[in-house]
Specification:
By secondary structure, the chain is of the alpha/beta class. The chain contains nine helices and twelve strands.
Amino acid sequence: MSTTILRHPAVAGRFYPGDPDDLRTEAQGYLSQSTSSTVAPTRAIGCIAPHAGYVYSGHVAGAVFSRIEIPRLCVVMCPNHTGMGRALAIMNEGSWETPLGEVPIDAEFALALQQRFPALHNDPAAHRAEHAAEVELPFLQLRQSNLSIVPIALGTGQFEVLEQLGLALADVVAQRKDPVLIVASSDMNHYESDVVTRAKDHRAIERILTMDARGLFDVVTQQNVSMCGFGPAVVMLTAARQLGAKAAHLVKYATSGDVSGDREMVVGYAGVIVA
């Protein structure tokens, strides 16, 4: 008898409300803050959204997800903060649970991607305690009631590997009739002053907005920008360019200091849409 793998929430009640009603109210609030009834949602190929506690970065994530059409399938890539599991870790079966309900994994897409890029290992252990993909899900669930996902955690910083994964992902997306959204979950620079963080983040964002994956990698690695999800961003930008993306747009930028008032040690958050 087969048992379906269910990944339980790791950070409900900490990064975001654990109560379904409270979560729905808070996340919907961030989504509606920036929604304009006169502007139709963009059909995006990819996006970058932050993954801190909602009180700090929820308004930036909400600004991104409110402005784009959320298709039924989202590939959600995140960095591996925990160090657990494989460096290239997918989950290719089962479901993820949030306080808003279960989200199934698209096994067909996941297996097709593994066939195209065999270095990607099925490894639930890499995802079990990782928060960075999980915190995006309630926003996606509220915008798409029939959501399914393919979660990927990346613990590698090798450009060639990230680029090859991006090209493989583009191939699998291109073979699919229905639209797919590629979500790169990332915060920007960490734990420096607001002034320094904004300057560093601006240099990284400049490269993102020209959809220059190699340029982003070089800025982050050579100029000491502690952008945790640069790997997912490199993969997303590589795939998006391959899939014919025309432009990247900065929806919102903020730092934790905007909320906490502490400008001495902040984390930066950028919300970007690639279409």
